[in-house]
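ok so I'm stuck.
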Amino acid sequence: MRLVREYPTNEKVKFLVTLKVKYKKMREPRNFCIAVNDKTPKEAARQAEKQVRDNWRNVKSARYLCIENTENHSITY
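replied:
not stuck anymore, here's the structure
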């Protein structure tokens, strides 16, 4: 399991969404952490999933594993 964190440069981020991304020609899924600014955790997860599916190549599926709120460090599964 590999975890990669993507942060926007010197911007205050509200949520860190960890995604399990399955690629078309790979057996093992990979985990990525993406920074998202949104109002609620569920909206942030939906936005991150859509961003990965639309903008990355060869993605079969993207599902969120957990959402971390960076303001109070609460984690939503």
